[in-house]
Amino acid sequence: MIQPIKLEHPSKKLLFLIHGYTGSPTDFNGLPEYLHKTLNINVKVMLLKGHGTNIKDLDSLEFNDFLVQAKRELRKDLQKYDEVFLGGVSFGAQLALYLAAHYPVKAVFNACLPYKLKFPFNIPKLELIGIFKKYWLKHIPETEKRLRQNAFHYKEMHIKGLKIVKQANRKLKKTLTKIYCPVLSIHSEKDPIGNYKTIDILDNKIKGPHDKKILRIFNDKNHNIFFTENRFDIYKKIEDFLKSSQKNNNFNSKRVAAIIPAYNEGNNIADVLSVLSRTKILNEIIVVDDGSTDKTPEAVKNFGQVKLLRNNKNKGKAYSMQRGMDATKADIIFFCDADLKGLTPSMVEQIIQPVINQKYDMYIGLRNNVMQKAVNLFALNSGERALTRALWEKLPENFKYRYRIEAGLNFIARKRGRGYGWQKFDYYQTLKEKKYGIIKGTILRWWMNFDVGCAYALAIVQNFSRKKSL
């Protein structure tokens, strides 16, 4: 029985590969071993359900079975490794691109993507002939037969495969615009199943920087170009692409700024600034005093390296956050409330590091407050979060109002970015009822909850409008 391929290395980087429908982990024909050696990286080729045994094991499996399996494995690997790269061939390339649109991977390559099908596979409802014949013998060129002697694959094509490929294409049509990482597309002009013009479609749909959408066309008759005489050239193209992606995505030189909106926090802000001043990952610290009437400015001035901005009157948290953004050119921002207790430099770095490593566009630190421990929906609106400047710039203005801001950022990161992650920490926030008294504190809390509710309503409306326009 065929097993997944796992090549281990001490590094915290992983290349996650997905084989084709009716294929196996051997579909990559020496590529995993080559990249494991040349890139000093962990390499994994998952084994799709129903594969490596008998073609009849595919009878009951649908597209969603493979998608759920791939998602589950990738999520585990994203927790285990600092950097994850994706790759796939044929149906595996469809899965790899879909995952790249929804998860924070560093780069993705696709080979022989069957996005634009050739005749007769592009005939509408052709898959219905499966009612009469379920398995069809594959036509494999002689060169591929010779090179496949030690590689496992089903000798027949399952008719359900055409239905599954078309389902995958419908999913990709909606998600290709969400891919922001570097992409390498490899295709053959004479591929018998997929039209090589697929790469032009990818070039138009993927919205990332143009110089990161690298396209390569070869002139082979095989559907799987890893079993051709050009395979070593293809190995080198992929190696160069992954090396380039690691270099282009290096965030070590990026500036990180902490922005702290503060309103009447004279009794609390010194503790927070003391922690941030000792956090080595930060290049600058900015406090935006939102029209305080207490000694907040005096407390801030005790920290000489902290930049203090003052609003003439109280204009709300979102306004102050934007003013802080306008005052810095930093690439990564750490937002932090001014009344935290129990915060440490290590916690701050743990929140910022996943964004520096480009695992996420935003990472949220969840507090140890009673409400946040009880309800994740409230917890995810925590003020402690690191994010890229690019993500902030995608946020519509109607979310930049008082307490709508965090829920708005969550929505944008999930729908138009590389997603967000979160982690619970032992720091906590001073309760509003304790700072302002029971009556005023309760009113402020419910006013904040109302703002958050408005943000969720806006997110639903904008999501619906965007789907309608697609």
Automatic annotation (TrEMBL):
InterPro entries associated with the record: AB_hydrolase_fold (IPR029058), Glyco_trans_2-like (IPR001173), Glycosyltransferase_2 (IPR050256), Nucleotide-diphossugar_trans (IPR029044)
Tell me which residues make up the Glycosyltransferase 2-like domain.
258-373
* Gene3D superfamilies for this protein: alpha/beta hydrolase, Spore Coat Polysaccharide Biosynthesis Protein SpsA, Chain A
Q: Which domain of life is it from?
A: Bacteria
Q: What Pfam families does its record include?
A: Glycos_transf_2
Q: What is this protein called?
A: Glycosyltransferase 2-like domain-containing protein
Originating species: Candidatus Falkowbacteria bacterium CG1_02_37_44
